[in-house]
Specification:
The protein is of the alpha/beta class. It has one domain: Transcription Regulator spoIIAA. It has 4 helices and 6 strands; from the N terminus they run E-E-E-H-E-H-E-H-E-H. It has a 6-stranded mixed beta sheet with strand order 1-2-3-4-5-6, sandwiched between helices. The N and C termini lie far apart (30 Å).
Length: 152
């Protein structure tokens, strides 16, 4: 099942940006994120992930996510700060990814500005964070993290 943030209604502003996600294989979710992103976009992500994370925890127990940026990864400060609190709550409840691979392909707008914000948010939440320049590298890492989690 593929999900995306277009279906969520907002009160003030429409989400700026778009995020869609679907399983790549058992235990690995791939997000395609079309930025830049505002707070309303992250509110939509939180709304959908609240349900999805609980279901993924029941189905897989552990999972890893890969975030693949398209065009831009620029994020508003208030958006990522709100998301980090949501992610921390999910970690505390045992329903969050164990690791996240962020793919910043060469030329992605905002990578040198926003990557520190993403790293800080995931570190705050207690989710392992790693940056990559390509999808295949991220997928290999995600598979290793998943394997480590099932053998420990």
């Amino acid at each position: 099942m593929t999900r995306n943030t277009d279906c969520i209604d907002t009160v003030t502003f429409r989400p700026h940006g778009r995020v869609e996600w679907a399983p790549a294989e058992d235990g690995i979710i791939v997000y395609k994120a079309y930025g830049p992103f505002n707070a309303e976009l992250f509110d939509a992500v939180i709304s959908l992930e609240s349900e999805d994370f609980e279901n993924l925890q029941k189905e897989w127990g552990h999972w890893v996510e890969i975030i693949l940026f398209v065009d831009s990864c620029f994020v508003m400060k208030d958006a990522i700060e709100n998301y980090q609190h949501f992610l921390k709550q999910c970690v505390d409840e045992g329903a969050a990814p164990i690791a996240s691979a962020f793919v910043y392909t060469p030329g992605i707008e905002g990578a040198n500005l926003s990557n520190a914000s993403y790293r800080k948010a995931y570190e705050y939440a207690g989710v392992e964070y790693q940056e990559f320049e390509g999808y295949e590298q991220a997928l290999t890492w995600a598979r290793e993290k998943l394997k480590e989690s099932t053998t420990s």
